[in-house]
Amino acid sequence: MRVLVAPDKFAGTLSAVEAAEAIAAGWRQQAPGDELDLAPMSDGGPGFVAVLHEALGGELVAVTVRGPHGEPTPATVLLAGPDGATAYVESAQACGLHLTGGERPETASSYGVGELVATAVDAGASTVVVGLGGSGTSDGGAGLLAALGAVADAPLDGGVARLDGVTEVDVSAARERVGGARLVAASDVDNPLTGLFGALKTFGPQKGVSEDRIAPLDALLEAYATAVDRRLSLEPGAGAAGGLGFALMALGATREPGIGLVAEAVGLAERARAADLVVTGEGAFDFSSRAGKVPHGVAGIAEAAVRPCVLLAGQVLVGSREMRALGIESAYAVVDLVGEERAFADPAGALADLATRTARTWSR
User: Fold this and answer.
1) Beta-sheet strand order (sheet of 309-316)
2) Which of 199, 234, 258 is the last residue of a domain?
3) What's the mean per-residue pLDDT of the chain?
4) At 304, is the pLDDT very low, low, confident or very high (cuts 50, 70, 90)?
């Protein structure tokens, strides 16, 4: 039997590459004769560069950038394609939630993402793809703009709280710094920058922003958006990664679905057609999985290839009806099999055990 293994990361425990390897190891325990094709996936968040490097090869350029609170932070830029013409940047490497730990979210800056973009441009890339997701910032991408040379009548590099009083933002120098490079914002998030469904209201609490601070901080983002380009702040995806989507749009970026971009890069549709079964996965399979997450995207590709898709997750938090609406035939949870304590103590081993159990049902 030919099995395509295409999971996302299991946030906080396993990278997508590690998850794919764990699933494969467990599957082989039950069905050693099956042919396994490993295709770790990403939707633009943490692991974006690693997944694409695994699939495309290319050169990884190491760089140290300013972290969300000013600390030196190691990161990488992937140069792929002919002569490194396409660069891939992972915003979470410079301002991810794992770097802030949910602390001081109001002063967390995306400055380091701008430094990554500058590194890609200086390396000669004609296209720079910025994976958006997993950020610990809510500064509307002001830090990114500052790193590329934008100026304003308020600090742009001090997080959303420091935008107080902003009335003018000049991004012309930032546009010149990018030059003729084509920018692509890789994200499946449809949120605008501000308002009821904006970056702060939707994602602020998970980054540590208290409920009573969301409205006043959102007002600061409103003023900032007006100073840059109010129209762009209303575009779908402007609120991605704490507003990095908005800042990239202000520099002329186009938006592409992250899961679609990665799926195309790794040739997932062709690999699904060559398989008998598709296995995907993520840390928590819940209602948010519909919003451009990897399992939903992989399931859609499996459906187009007329192949069944099953999911392995740390937790499964949706019912069978909702699961099938997302294109998943069956979903299995690590926690249900081994318990929460072992799931976190030995995530790879626990996931492998779940894969062994799943293979008993699905491998023929």
Assistant:
1) 35-38, 2-5, 277-285, 309-316, 330-333
2) 258
3) 95
4) very high
